[in-house]
Design a protein that fits this description.
Elements: E1 28-30, E2 36-39, E3 47-50, E4 55-60, H1 66-82, E5 85-90, H2 95-108, E6 113-116, H3 125-134, E7 138-142, E8 164-167, H4 172-185, E9 190-195, H5 202-217, E10 221-226, H6 232-245, E11 251-254, H7 259-270, E12 279-283, H8 286-293, E13 299-302, H9 305-320, E14 328-330, E15 337-338, E16 341-342
Parallel strand pairs: 4-5, 4-6, 6-7, 7-8, 8-14, 9-10, 9-11, 11-12, 12-13
Antiparallel strand pairs: 1-2, 2-3, 15-16
Helix pairs in contact: 1-9, 2-3, 4-5, 6-7
Length: about 350
């Protein structure tokens, strides 16, 4: 992963009155309102962030899977260091519910800052770039925002109106490496089922683009999507249905461990094909490690959900205290590679790997 990028500075920054340090990253300076700091979000109007205790809302897609539980825990634990209040908002994977939650946050002025994991980045763009900044709410995105799903990891993932984008392991760059490595390790003609989430999800949109690219460069690696809702029960039934109608399947991919991968393993077990059809997954969880040891998963690439929450809160605190904030914040620890040169965990290096969740 490319780390600690400077951000794209709008022309308005050159003459910014209150906005200190419009060079690399955002900054905060004493605001005109008493007891606030002015935080540069790349627009003509800064966010006036209160000093002292902050109210932070963590708006997740839903709390019914382990990734989002850990993300919220990371935010809560980091916020405790600074005495911030954190409220976790679950949209239950319902776009309209998340939009309503965000609108209420803007209207009711219930949060000083929010961390948003978008259900549909494109559908929530106006909320991020207009509604929330107009309501003086500082926003950090967890993953892609607006139409940035197909943007490589780096500063360009950020959109003006927000403080930063915390991302990395769910970017198109990381997805591209996952599929490239899958094809390299399983050369020749392959009929692949790719179990994933809803087709409006920012990550899934990136996956579809990479698969379209591979269809041109490596047509022998044929991928069909098996859409779900990031839950195990749906992954079980969707994978069973897929396998029943695709008897020539040679490889199964899972976009997310443990929940989806657990469903894929259960489906293959029920059809008697576990061990016959290799499974590759993303997540690098304790469950993935156990299944690699059991010989049921070929390899995994890790996710770092705790860092999404923790690094987002840290960015908000840095902005509040006047420290520089990179527009793109990588969640990938240096010891596990970078977004374009990630760690691949398999039976050969399992003993040196510690799952993040």
């Amino acid at each position: 992963m490319k780390r600690s990028f400077g951000y794209f500075a709008p022309a308005a920054c050159a003459s910014a009155l209150l906005l200190a340090g419009c060079g690399n990253g955002s900054s905060a300076s004493p605001g005109s309102a008493e007891g606030t700091v002015a935080v540069d979000v790349g627009t003509n109007t800064p966010i006036n962030l209160p000093k002292g205790k902050l109210r932070i809302g963590v708006f997740t897609q839903g709390q019914a899977n382990q990734f989002n539980e850990v993300l919220a825990h990371g935010a809560t634990k980091e916020a405790a260091k600074y005495g911030y209040d954190v409220t976790v908002m679950s949209a239950d994977f319902d776009l309209n519910k998340q939009l309503d939650q965000l609108q209420n946050a803007a209207t009711n002025e219930s949060f000083d800052a929010i961390i948003l994991e978008p259900i549909s980045a494109a559908a929530e763009c106006a909320m991020l770039t207009k509604t929330l900044p107009a309501a003086n709410v500082l926003t950090v995105t967890a993953g892609s925002s607006c139409d940035k799903n197909l943007t490589d990891a780096g500063d360009d993932l950020w959109v003006p109106g927000t403080l930063a984008s915390v991302a990395g392991d769910t970017t198109i760059t990381y997805v591209r490496k996952f599929l490239q490595i899958a094809a390299e390790r399983h050369p020749g003609p392959q009929k692949v089922g790719f179990a994933t989430g809803p087709d409006i999800d920012p990550l899934v949109i990136a996956q579809k683009q990479v698969v379209a690219e591979m269809a041109q460069s490596n047509p022998d690696f044929h991928v069909d999507f098996v859409y779900g809702d990031w839950s195990t029960p749906t992954a079980v039934s969707a994978t069973q249905n897929y396998l029943a109608s695709h008897k020539d399947t040679t490889l199964m991919l899972s976009a997310y461990s443990p929940d989806i991968t657990r469903g894929v393993i259960a489906a293959l077990t029920s059809t008697g094909e576990l061990g016959k059809i290799p499974v590759l997954d993303q997540g690098g969880t304790s469950y993935s490690v156990d299944e690699i040891k059991a010989g049921n998963i070929d390899f995994t690439m890790p996710y770092f959900p705790f860092n999404y929450g923790a690094y987002a809160v840290k960015a908000i605190h840095d902005a509040q205290t006047g420290a520089k904030v990179s527009r793109f914040v990588s969640v990938i620890p240096a010891k596990y590679g970078t977004v374009d040169n990630p760690t691949v965990v398999d039976s050969q290096n399992l003993n040196s790997y510690t799952p993040a969740y």
